[in-house]
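Hello, quick one for you while I still have it in my head. Could you read through the record and tell me how the C-alpha cells relate to the sequence? No rush at all, and the record is pasted right below.
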Amino acid sequence: MTLAAILAALEQGCLYGIMALGVYLTFRVLNFPDLTVDGSLPLGAAVAATAIAAGIPPHLATLGAAVAGFAAGATTALLATRLNILGLLASILTMIALYSITIRIMGAPNRTLLGLPTVFDPLSSLGIPLYQASPLAMAAVVALVAAGLIWFLHTAYGQAMLATGDNPAMIRALGVNTDQVLLVGVGLSNALAALCGALVAQNQGSADVTMGVGTIVAGLASVIVGETIFGAPTVARACLAVVGGSILYRMAIALALSVRLGPLAVSPSDLNLITAVVVILAMASPHLARRQRR
C-alpha cells in the first residue's frame, strides 16, 4: 500500500470518525437503535452543497447542515417518544422520508461543488501539498469534535444522558425528563452525521443522495473495532477508541483493496463483504481470546 493510499485512508478515517462518534452516542450512550444516520449524512451533504451553490459562505452552510441533521434526529426521537413508535421503526421511517427530502433540497439526485468555495480552500495557502495537509486538517477537526463530545458527556446533562441509556427507570425517578434527553441525544448524533456529510461533500466535490448507504454499518464497525482493540473503560477513552476504530476500519478497507492474488483482485463492489468480515472478526475476537486462555 502506497503512502498516498495510507494518507487517504487516514483522511477518510478521521472524516468518518465524526459520524462514528454520533453512532457511539446513540448505540452505546443512549442504547437507542438509530438508523437515521443513513439519511442524515446525505441530508447534511445536500444542505451544504445547495447553500454553497446559493452563495452562502461554506462555514455557515456546514453549520446549517448540522442543524438540519439535528432536526432529522429530533424527528426520530419524537416519533419514538410522543407517538410510541418502536425506536428502530421510527428511525427507518425517518430515513426513508429523508431520501425524498434530500432530492427535494438539491433539486436532483446529486449536485456538484466543483469551482465553488469550500471550508478546505485555506489549506491550499499553507504551502503544504494538499494530500498531506488534508489529513492533518481532518485529524484536527475530529479531535475538536471528540473533545467537545467528551466535555459534554462530563457535564450534568451529559451524565443524565449516560444514566438514561444505562437505567432510564432510575434516572426518571430522580426527576429527569428522559424523553427530552433522548431527543437531544439522537438529535446531536444525527447533527454529527450531517456535519460529516457536509464535510465529505466539500472534500470530494459533490453531494449525492446515495452517499449515505451503509453509513450505519461503517459507524458500527468503527465503534466495535475501536472498543475491541483499544477498550472503553471511560467516556474519554471510548470516544478516542471510536475515532481510532474509524481510522483502522478505513485502513483495513484500503489494504483489502490493494490485495491482489494472481488474477483475483478485490474491487470496490466487495466493500460490504469486507465490512462484514471486519465486524465479525472484531466481535468474535474477545470470545476467541477467552477460549484460547481456557
About this structure: Residues 3-209 form one domain. The chain has one domain: 3-209. The first strand starts at residue 110 and ends at 112. Strands lie at 110-112, 206-208, 260-261, 264-265.
